[in-house]
Write a structure and sequence with these properties.
Elements (H helix, E strand, L loop, with lengths): L5 E9 L5 E11 L11 E6 L5 E4 L9 H8 L20
Antiparallel strand pairs: 1-2, 2-3, 3-4
C-alpha cells in the first residue's frame, strides 16, 4: 500500500426486526516509514456510529487501538498487514 493509502471497513449489525444498522467504522492509513514502527507504519482509527472517536494510533486512546495492529500484524508481512476473506467467502460473479 502506498503511503497515504486508506482502507475503510464499515461494520453493521442486523436488529431483531431484520433491519441493518451502522456499527463502528474502522480505518487503516499507511503512514511513512518509521512513523509508527510498533504498528508497521499503519495508523488505525475507529469511529463510533454517532461519529465519536473510539481511538487512533498515536492519538486519542492509542492503547485501545493496539488490538487492531496486533491482529493485522499476525497476518504476516506478505500482505502488508492487510487481511482478506478466504476466496470461498468472496462475492463471485
Amino acid at each position: 500500500m502506498p503511503v497515504g493509502g486508506v482502507v475503510a471497513k464499515p461494520t453493521f449489525s442486523i436488529g431483531d426486526d431484520g433491519q441493518a444498522f451502522w456499527e463502528t467504522l474502522f480505518l487503516m492509513e499507511k503512514a511513512g516509514d518509521g512513523a509508527s514502527p510498533e504498528t508497521n507504519d499503519w495508523i488505525y482509527t475507529a469511529i463510533m456510529p454517532d461519529g465519536s472517536l473510539m481511538g487512533r494510533t498515536l492519538g486519542e486512546n492509542s492503547d485501545g487501538m493496539a488490538f487492531c495492529a496486533a491482529c493485522h500484524m499476525g497476518g504476516g508481512m506478505d500482505t502488508d498487514d492487510l487481511l482478506f476473506m478466504a476466496p470461498e467467502y468472496r462475492v463471485q460473479d
